[in-house]
Amino acid sequence: MSGKYDNALLDLNKILKMEPNNVCALRNRGYTYILLEKYDKALNDFIKSLEIEPENLFALTCRAEIYSHLEKYDEAFSDYNRVLEIEPNYVDALYFRGELYLKLDKYEEGFSDFNKVLEIVPANTFTYIRGEAFMKLDKYEEALLEFDRLLEIQPNDVYILGIRGECNMSLEKYDDALLDFERLLKIQPINAYALRKRGETYLELGKLDKALSDINQSLEIESDNADALRNRGYIYKMLGKFNEALDDLNKSLEIRLDTLTLWYRGMTYEMLNESKETDLANKNIKQESSIKAILYDQFKDIKYIAKGGFGKIYKATWILNSEETKTVALKYIPNSKNFNNTFIKEVCILFFF
Q1: What CA–CA distances, in Å, run from 230 to 23, 193, 197, 309?
Q2: Spatial CA neighbour of 232 closest among 259, 251, 257
Q3: What are the domain boundaries of the chain?
Q4: Which residues on neighbouring strands pair with residue 326, listed in sequence order?
């Protein structure tokens, strides 16, 4: 792909050598640099083009996008605002300014821009980002309505099918999530993301064989995906294949360091008794061979870590007495009335290893 852009740059450079102020060539070369993520060079071209045509909407919008990539947010907003002063209904500026607002956690302003886009172009499926914004606010029902509406317009949009599947997973509507990922895979059978997410859904349902099959296929396509390696490592741990689990978890951590993978690896080391040092937050926790109830008010500083097999994981401080505390991991288990054999197996692993 980059070869095509390089050829375009050769031609544009020839034109600009003969005509240094050719504004069309400057804009096209600047946009090519954006596609190649060479933002400093792109910025130079758009600055020069705007000196020649200071109110060109495309150039102003592109320069704003470059400023956003360079984290020069004040300059980006200045250009977006200038575009919308000239043309209040310029969709690209509204959309990208809305994205920038969301990036800076200014959700109200972001929603306002996306709503204006919908008023101008009701069938604009790119406003899926409004649904994503609802998800960031944990408003999953509102997000789901947004994705449903967009899929009525374009029922085979693979991106929206995927993000709706993730939304259904967050709502613990795993059967609906499976339908979304299966629809996606009918359209794109060799889609590593969809295979991985369907595998994660099977994992939440305790269907380890199906989960492992999907994640294996996803890793054949993307062998260095940290999430897929972590999840396969978790499945191997659940199947008692601890060496294979450690191989995957170690590879995942080489690609990206994250708390959930460290926690899984720590549990696996504990199970193997191969190392006195574990990746658990408190390495001195002594496991007990019995289960007992602990009141919720005996925990403080509860912080969400991540979602992992069968529930959500939190870090907390356990108040043992007036002077002594201990750092522990808590796990929230939804739909506990639907325990299955795989869930019981995890409980046994946690308490008896």
Answers
A1: 50, 14, 13, 11
A2: 251
A3: 296-351
A4: 318
